[in-house]
Amino acid sequence: MPNNTFDISRKDQPLQPIKNGQQYEDALARADELIQKNIKPDAEESDELEILSILIKEYENKYYPIPKSNPLEAIKHQLEQMNMSEAELSKMSGLSIQEIREAFREMEIERDDDP
C-alpha cells in the first residue's frame, strides 16, 4: 500500500503546501540545511529554498500571525523598560514635553485611521 503522506525531506517528491506542524518542522529543518550549504543563486537547490521559504511564510502567516504593531505603545513600553519619563525623553531628544505629547497624539490618530 503506497504511503500518501507528504514528507518534505524527500527530494523525489514535489513540494506541496505545509498542512501540519510536523511538515512545518520538516520544512524548517530542510530550509536550514539548504542555508547551511551556502548554495549559489542559480543552483537547483536555490529554487527549492525559495519555494520552501514561501511555503513556510504562508504557514506562519496562517498559524502564527504577527499582530499589527502600534508604534506609540512600543515607544511607551520602551520608556517604561528604561525607567525613563517624558521629561527625560524631552531632555535627550531636544523636544519639549508638549511636542512629544503632540507627536504621540498624531501617531495615535494615524493608527486609528489605518484600516
Detailed description of the structure:
The chain is mostly helical and 115 residues long. It has 5 helices and no strands. Helix 1 (21-36) packs antiparallel against helix 2 (44-63). The N and C termini lie far apart (51 Å).
What's the gist of this structure?
The chain has 5 helices and no strands. It has about 120 residues and is mainly α. It starts with 20 loop residues before the first helix and ends with a helix.
Features of the shown structure:
115 residues; mainly alpha; 2 domains; 5 helices; 0% strand; elongated
The biggest sheet, with number of strands, parallel, antiparallel or mixed sense and barrel status, is:
none
Radius of gyration: 23 Å
Task: Bin the strand percentage.
Answer: under 5%
What does the average pLDDT come to? 82
Number of domains: 2
Summing up helix and strand content along with how strands pair, one would put the structural category as mainly alpha
Sequence stretches where pLDDT stays below 50 over 5 or more residues = none
What's the order of the H and E elements? HHHHH
Separation, N- and C-terminal Cα atoms: 51 Å
The number of helical segments is 5
Shape descriptor reads elongated
Q: Based on DSSP secondary structure assignment, what is the total number of beta strands?
A: 0
Estimate percent helicity.
55-70%
